[in-house]
Design brief:
This protein has about 190 residues and is mainly α. It has a domain at about 1-30 and about 95-185. The protein contains 5 helices and 2 strands. It has a two-stranded antiparallel sheet. Helix 4 packs across helix 5 (about 150-160).
């Protein structure tokens, strides 16, 4: 199968998985209170105004729909659930975006990693640093800039590769929002 078709199939499924992940994370945060604290930093819950929420709903409604083969997911019943987190290597100390405004890249890259494992059997943690460092040359967004999952889809559609976290300079380095990891320093040899 052509690489572009595989990436397109992965993106379609990834978008749905990302929406599910984002809603489950938001629900989990809401049950823990308004803020979590780890010393000097706090993590407030997002409360979008009516206009912003309307834009999100509109973007969702006009987004292309993806076909998902539900047989592969084996959900026990219509009211059942399926935990996909076993498909994501999660090390809390290493999954901290810090002061960089790229939660969209973290969530989307995590969902892409889950989709790659579920659909293709590729169990490799993917680099958030890759998109953070290279987005300005690919989708014209500034490093550590806010964004949407559509920005992630645009980035990976343009690059057509995902980079493992273990590649040279692909591990997360911009938590201080310094943006001093040049795209050209990230190895793309394994992708």
């Amino acid at each position: 199968m052509r690489k572009g078709k595989v990436m397109g199939k992965i993106f379609g499924t990834t978008l749905v998985l990302c929406l599910v992940l984002a809603l489950s994370v938001a629900g989990g945060l809401a049950t823990r209170g308004a803020q979590a604290d780890d010393g000097a930093r706090t993590y407030p819950i997002m409360h979008p105004d009516r206009e912003t929420l309307g834009k999100w709903v509109e973007a969702y409604n006009i987004a292309p729909k993806a076909h998902i083969d539900m047989e592969g997911f084996q959900i026990p019943s219509p009211r059942g659930s399926l935990n996909l987190l076993d498909h994501l290597e999660y090390i809390p100390d290493e999954r901290d975006q810090g002061y960089c405004n790229n939660c969209w890249a973290w969530a989307g890259t995590g969902c892409l990693g889950i989709a790659l494992d579920v659909q293709e059997g590729i169990e490799d943690r993917l680099s958030v640093q890759y998109i953070n460092s290279c987005q300005s040359s690919v989708i014209r967004k500034t490093c550590c800039d806010g964004g949407w999952l559509s920005d992630l889809a645009d980035f990976y559609t343009a690059t057509d590769i995902a980079i493992p976290w273990s590649n040279t300079n692909a591990h997360w380095q911009d938590g201080d929002a310094s943006c001093d990891t040049a795209c050209s320093t990230i190895s793309t040899t394994t992708n």
